[in-house]
Specification:
80% helix; mainly alpha
Length: 118
């Protein structure tokens, strides 16, 4: 699960950065505010890569997905991109858990079928 979720979060890192560049063109938003918010979101993306397997990591990932969709208020394209990445996040969590279960099952089978070396 960690690999799939981390890949999604790194993709989001770049999307948030590009959205910050687009948001800078809005005359109602100050450059410092745009980069403060974008920077915090980008740092969260990277930090969540390491936290995804810990308790609450997936929930924080979902919160980030909701924030990404909500950023569509300022950059309308982010409604679409946020929905795409929320779907990717769901797939990463769902299929990542299945892969982890299969790996554990195969490891248990290999351990039980291995001859004792005693």
């Amino acid at each position: 699960m960690r690999t799939l979720c981390s890949s999604t979060l790194i993709g989001e890192f770049f999307i948030v950065g590009f959205a910050g560049l687009v948001a800078m063109k809005d005359p109602d938003l100050s450059t410092s505010t745009v980069w403060l918010v974008s920077g915090v979101a980008m740092v969260l993306c990277v930090l969540l890569c390491g936290m995804v397997t810990r308790p609450g990591g997936v929930a924080l990932g979902w919160a980030l997905q909701l924030a990404l969709i909500a950023s569509g208020v300022f950059v309308p394209t982010m409604y679409f991109m946020g929905a795409v990445f929320a779907a990717l996040w769901w797939a990463s969590v769902h299929y990542g858990r299945k892969v982890d279960e299969a790996k554990a099952r195969f490891a248990a089978q290999a351990e039980s079928s291995a001859p004792d070396a005693a």
